[in-house]
Specification:
two-stranded antiparallel sheet; YerB-like fold; about 15% helix; 16-stranded mixed β-sheet
């Protein structure tokens, strides 16, 4: 009994020491904390910094316009060239205002368009007509483009099928490319197709085109030695063409034979850039053949101004190089471009402020 009481007293004594020890530790910590808060030079205060990271998403630009792509998914698809008729019975056409680049070339006493689609398409597109020998070199820089056409004579058909272009002629693509005859027109000016279907026929290894021109950056001005432009008149084979600057629309608008040129939606044919390339035309049979490899004079109409210079192209697989009189590369306005492939001395520049009716076609 005595031993049990002794053990209980010892236990109480130990517990008492433990409580006192805890109480003393707490008081000491409290005192030290108070002292530290008063003596500011003896305390380190750590403040977590708040960092905000801003990620700038780069603009994805279409290779053939230099403008923001309407859809990133289209950037990887190949260029699609459609040969579009310009016979009076083929007008108005489908798709000319949707093409990234349009080449107007002389054919037999008339002109024809090679409309290059990549960033957007047109369903339907046309009227579609035959290809020409000159198309092979003119279009080779688009990286094996799809080529929608309605055929040609045996020599032309053989040459095109041996070229770098992918044959999507009426006979090759047919219904899979959306080819059909438009009932409101008469043959042969009534063949149309659909770009959305033609793109599905691209080879598995098809690649997008490389940029064909250089473009000004946002806010970059045209060179100070450029000339304010009112219009340009061009005598093509069988048709008079005029491109006139529209300050209201900030683009060039097109006329044919002194009448506004409109598409099937009754929208004036227009483009921010008009590149007038002077070339030598030879002949194969009765067909003109533009020599698009070599060099020559170029007039570039962009942002309401004319920049004069020269074009050079030593390899048909490479784009045209456009340089001004000082040797600097001519930069275009981001957006669509028309390329007029003209005979030499067949264009007349009209300065801003001059009545276009007072200047004759050359």
């Amino acid at each position: 009994m005595r031993n049990r009481k002794s053990r209980n007293l010892i236990a109480l004594f130990v517990v008492g020491l433990f409580v006192a020890s805890c109480s003393g530790s707490s008081d000491s910590t409290s005192t030290e904390s108070s002292a530290d808060s008063v003596a500011g030079d003896s305390t380190e205060t750590t403040v977590a910094e708040s960092t905000t990271t801003t990620t700038t998403i780069p603009i994805v630009r279409a290779p053939l316009t230099g403008a923001q792509a309407p859809d990133e998914a289209v950037i990887g698809r190949p260029a699609l060239v459609v040969k579009i008729d310009n016979h009076p019975k083929s007008r108005p056409q489908w798709g000319l205002n949707q093409a990234d680049i349009v080449f107007e070339e002389n054919v037999e006493q008339l002109t024809r368009f090679a409309a290059v689609f990549q960033s957007q398409g047109s369903d339907p597109v046309g009227p579609i007509r035959s290809g020409r020998i000159q198309d092979i070199n003119l279009l080779a820089s688009f990286n094996e483009p799809l080529f929608a056409w309605s055929g040609g004579n045996a020599q032309v058909a053989s040459a095109i099928r041996k070229s770098t272009m992918v044959d999507l002629s009426h006979s090759a693509a047919n219904e899979a490319g959306g080819f059909r005859r438009e009932s409101s027109r008469v043959a042969p000016h009534n063949l149309v197709a659909e770009t959305s279907k033609l793109w599905t026929l691209a080879p598995a290894d098809a690649r997008p085109p490389v940029p064909q021109f250089e473009y000004r950056a946002d806010g970059e001005a045209v060179p100070t030695d450029s000339k304010p432009a009112g219009a340009v008149k061009i005598s093509m084979d069988g048709v008079d063409v005029m491109w006139e600057w529209s300050p209201e629309l900030l683009t060039f608008v097109r006329s044919q034979d002194d009448k506004p040129h409109v598409d099937m939606q009754d929208v004036r044919i227009n483009a921010p850039n008009v590149v007038v390339i002077s070339v030598v035309y030879t002949k194969t049979g009765s067909s003109p053949v533009a020599k698009s490899v070599g060099s020559g004079e170029v007039w570039v109409y962009t942002a309401g101004a004319l920049i004069q210079g020269s074009w050079e192209r030593n390899d048909p697989l490479k784009p045209f190089v456009l340089k001004d009189a000082k040797g600097a590369v001519i930069k275009l306005t981001p957006g669509r471009t028309w390329v007029e492939v003209i005979r030499m001395k067949s264009a007349a520049h009209i300065p801003a402020g001059i009545d276009v009716a007072s200047v004759p076609y050359p």
